[in-house]
Amino acid sequence: MQENVILVDANDTEIGSCEKLAAHLYGGQLHRAFSVFVFDDKKRLLLQQRARGKYHFAGLWTNTCCSHPRPGEVTLAAAQRRLTEELGFTVGLTEIGQFLYRADDPVSGLTEHELDHVFVGHFTGAPTPNPTEVMDWRWQAMEQVEAELLVTPERFTPWFPLALAYIRRASL
Length: 172
Known about the structure:
The protein is of the alpha+beta class. 20% of the residues lie in helices and 37% in strands.
């Protein structure tokens, strides 16, 4: 099935749609995305390592879940859908901010140019990851996440530290 993304301007106003892979070619077209951060009752963050088969930034560690809403789909509903598809559970989510960024993947040659909505939720338990989406996962204290980011930033997706800034400001 062909996946389409929502093209937007810098104010997050919808201006059209485009096939997902095409939106990441030739410097990327600005499109709507989301990043989900799920915490447990010990305030640890659920991180995932992207599967090796992902079309870009494969094998890198990142926030709990991230993807794109489909045309006509509310961003919150898309975030909940992808959380279930990738990690096998659904929780209530709250949007805490958004940011615009561009990042090139030197391995795939693709570019992320996204207006990224940041969502937060809470879950206690073990996810049941989809192996085509998630290679590995772990619960980790924020202090450890931030220390690891300082020492080995290349092990993480480029949007992760940017979205993490919203989490720090929200004091979650």
